[in-house]
Amino acid sequence: MKHNVIVARESTYIIRGGPEGRERLRLVARVMAPSTGELLDRVGVAHDADCLDVGCGGGDVTLELARRAHAGRVVGIDLDEAKLEIARAEAREAGADNIDYRCQDLRSPDLGPAFDVVHARFVLSHLVDPQAAVDGLVRVLRPGGALVVVDIEKTATLCEPPHRSFERYIELYTLAARARGVDPDIGPRLPAILADAGCRPVRVNVVQPVGRQPKGYEGDVKLTAPVTLESIADAILALDIAERSELDSLVDDLYRLAADDETLIGTPRMMQAWGYRPVEVT
Question: What pLDDT is attached to residue 16?
Answer without folding.
Answer: 61
